[in-house]
Every structure is written in C-alpha cells, then in structure tokens.
Amino acid sequence: MTKVALFVQLKAKSGKEEEVAAFLKSAQALAQQEPLTVAWFAVRFDTSTFGIFDAFEGEEGRQAHLSGRIAAALMAKYDELFEGALEIKQPDVLADHLPG
C-alpha cells in the first residue's frame, strides 16, 4: 500500500500553457524509471492550471523522487514556465486502490 505522496499545483505563465503541458507529458518517461514511485500523474485542471501527484510506499521513495530527475527538471524550468512560488505538499495516503 502507498503510504506517502507528493502534490504540486502549478500555474502556467500566460502564453506558456501548451509548453507546460508538453513539459509535463515528457516527464512520464522519467517517472517510469523510478522504481520507488508507485503512481505518478500529471494533470490539467483548466487552461493554465496543472498538477503533479505521486505516491510512494514510504519516505525513501518520496525523498528519492524529490532528489530525482523530474524534480531537477521542474526546478530548472520553473521560473520560465510557471507563476507564483513553488509549493510542494507532502500528504500521507490514507487509502488507495491500484492495479495489481
């Protein structure tokens, strides 16, 4: 069962919305290379609001993800693509339903 997660809500800068969508889609390949990442989602709420949700079996996976390639890419592109301060929430998972 997953026990911990990460959630980041992101607001694209005006005119950067499709670049943000492409950037987040491209991160899927990196997520697939993370053995401790149980679930990873990049979502779009509306034209300019996006989110990333990840789940892990434990703190080791969460910390590995936070120090991994997706986090590094997000930090490198943040000022160019996004508005506002980056806020990474670290919730606990109360229940899950995953395949397998």
In a few lines, what is going on in this structure?
The protein is of the alpha+beta class and 100 residues long.
Description:
The chain has 100 residues and is of the alpha+beta class. The protein has one domain: Alpha-Beta Plaits (2-Layer Sandwich), CATH 3.30.70. Helix content is 35%, strand content 29%. It is built from four helices and five strands. It has helices spanning 17-26, 28-31, 59-66, 69-81; strands at 4-12, 37-44, 49-56, 82-83, 88-89. Strands 1, 2, 3, 4 and 5 form a five-stranded antiparallel sheet that branches. Strand 2 (37-44) and strand 3 form a beta hairpin. The longest helix is centred in the C-terminal third of the chain and has 13 residues, at 69-81. The radius of gyration is 13 Å and the shape is globular. The chain starts with a strand and ends in an 11-residue tail after the last strand. The model has no long low-confidence stretch (mean pLDDT 97). It comes from Rhizobium tropici. One of its GO terms (molecular function) is monooxygenase activity. InterPro entries: Dimeric_a/b-barrel. This is Antibiotic biosynthesis monooxygenase. Keywords: Monooxygenase, Oxidoreductase.
Topology (elements, then pairings):
Elements: E1 4-12, H1 17-26, H2 28-31, E2 37-44, E3 49-56, H3 59-66, H4 69-81, E4 82-83, E5 88-89
Antiparallel strand pairs: 1-3, 1-4, 1-5, 2-3
Q: How confident is the prediction overall: mean pLDDT?
A: 97
**Global morphology:** globular
The number of helices is 4
State the CATH topology: Alpha-Beta Plaits
Which CATH class is shown? Answer: Alpha Beta
State the total count of DSSP E strands: 5
**Poorly predicted ranges (pLDDT <50, ≥5 residues)?**
none
N- and C-termini, Cα separation:
11 Å
Write down the Rg. Answer: 13 Å
Count of spatially separate domains? 1
Main β-sheet, in a few words? 5 strands, antiparallel
SSE series:
EHHEEHHEE
Strand content: 25-35%
Assign the structural class, choosing from mainly alpha, mainly beta, alpha/beta, alpha+beta, or little secondary structure.
alpha+beta
What share of residues is helical? 25-40%
CATH architecture: 2-Layer Sandwich
GO molecular function: monooxygenase activity
Protein name: Antibiotic biosynthesis monooxygenase
InterPro entries: Dimeric_a/b-barrel
Keywords: Monooxygenase, Oxidoreductase
